[in-house]
TrEMBL record:
The keyword tRNA processing applies. SMART domains: DTW. Transmembrane segments: none annotated. GO terms for biological process: tRNA processing. This is tRNA-uridine aminocarboxypropyltransferase. It comes from the Eukaryota. The lineage of its organism: Eukaryota, Metazoa, Chordata, Craniata, Vertebrata. Residues 1-28 are annotated as: Disordered. Its EC number is 2.5.1.25. Keywords: S-adenosyl-L-methionine, Transferase, tRNA processing.
Length: 286
C-alpha cells in the first residue's frame, strides 16, 4: 500500500464550502446545510489546509495545547509505523512528534524491517540500551525494571513502539526478527485510555501517544512529561466529542456495563477472549 503523501504539508481543498454561494440567504437551506455538515464524519476536515506543526486541519489546530518548546528528554523514541496508520485521520503520532525534539522522535514507516533496508534501526535494535514496548510472556514491567535499577543510570535509552492496530502490531512484531533483539517491556500501570475516539480492544490498550507518554515519563522519571504529552490528546478528544464524534468505549467497558450491543459471537474462542477482557487486566489481545 502506498503512503498518502502531503498529510503534513498545507493542502488546499479544491472547492469551498456551501456557504460561499451568493444571493439572499435562505434560512432553511442554511439550516439544512448545517444539518448536513453536522452529520458528516469529522474526517472530512482533512481536505482543508493543514497546520504544519501539529498536522491537524488549521481550523482545529492543536498547537495551543502543545508545549511552547520541545520537551528535553534523554530517551530516544523510535515509532515503527504500519503504512495504513500513516493515512488514518485520527493519528496521535504527529502530536507526539510535535512535542519532542525531531532527533528524539523517529518515525519509520513500513511492515518489514531488515538490516539492509533499515541499517539505522537495525543498529538501534542491536544496542543494549534499547527497549521495545510490546506486551507478552517475555515482557517485563518497565516500571519494575526502572525501579530495580536494572537500567544503567544516565544511559541514553532508546525505546521502540509499534504504531498500528492490534493485529498489525502483532504481525509486525512477530515477523520482524530485529524486534526480538531488544529487551521487551510492557506498561503495568493502569491508565484508562484517554483516547476514546478510536475503540480500544481493552482499556489498558493505549494509543501510541499514551504509550509513549507513559514510557517516557517512567524512563525519564518525570511525571510532568505524561501531563504535557497527554494535553493535546485530551484537547483532540474533547474537540472531536463536541463535533459529534461518538465516544467509543473500549469493548471491555461495554461488556462490563452490559452495553455491548453486537450479537454475541458464535465462535467459542471469541467468547472466551471477551470474557478474558472482563476478568483479566493483563490480557491485551495482541
Ligand atoms: Zn497546529
Amino acid at each position: 500500500m502506498e503512503h498518502v503523501a502531503g498529510l503534513c504539508s498545507p493542502v488546499t481543498a479544491g472547492e469551498t464550502g456551501p456557504e460561499s454561494s451568493d444571493g439572499p440567504s435562505e434560512d432553511e437551506g442554511l439550516v439544512d446545510a448545517f444539518g448536513d455538515l453536522a452529520a458528516l464524519p469529522v474526517e472530512v476536515e482533512e481536505r482543508r489546509p493543514t497546520c504544519v506543526r501539529c498536522c491537524r486541519p488549521v481550523k482545529v489546530c492543536l498547537c495551543p495545547f502543545l508545549p511552547p518548546r520541545a520537551l528535553d528528554v534523554n530517551t530516544c523514541l523510535y515509532v515503527v509505523q504500519h503504512p495504513a496508520e500513516e493515512s488514518r485521520v485520527l493519528r496521535t503520532v504527529p502530536l507526539l512528534a510535535a512535542c519532542l525534539p525531531p532527533a528524539k522522535c523517529n518515525i519509520i514507516v513500513g511492515r518489514r524491517f531488515t538490516e539492509e533496508k533499515h541499517p539505522e534501526l537495525a543498529a538501534v535494535c542491536q544496542d543494549s540500551r534499547t527497549l521495545i514496548l510490546y506486551p507478552g510472556p517475555q515482557s517485563q514491567s518497565l516500571e519494575e525494571v526502572v525501579r530495580a535499577g536494572e537500567l544503567a543510570a544516565n544511559a541514553k535509552h532508546n525505546i521502540i513502539i509499534i504504531d498500528g492496530t492490534w493485529s498489525q502490531a502483532k504481525n509486525m512484531f512477530l515477523k520482524n526478527s530485529l524486534f526480538h533483539l531488544p529487551r521487551q517491556v510492557q506498561l503495568s500501570r493502569t491508565l484508562s485510555s484517554q483516547y476514546v475516539i478510536r475503540t480500544q480492544p481493552s482499556n489498558i490498550c493505549l494509543s501510541t501517544l499514551e504509550c509513549a507518554a507513559v514510557a517516557l515519563s517512567i524512563l525519564e522519571e518525570n511525571e510532568d512529561i505524561l501531563e504535557v504529552l497527554l494535553r493535546p490528546l485530551r484537547a483532540l478528544c474533547s474537540f472531536q466529542l463536541q463535533h459529534g464524534a461518538q465516544v467509543h468505549h473500549s469493548k471491555e467497558h461495554l461488556l462490563k456495563n452490559g452495553m455491548y450491543d453486537k450479537p454475541m459471537p458464535k465462535n467459542k474462542r471469541k467468547i472466551k477472549r471477551m470474557e478474558r477482557l472482563i476478568t483479566d487486566h493483563s490480557a491485551c489481545p495482541r
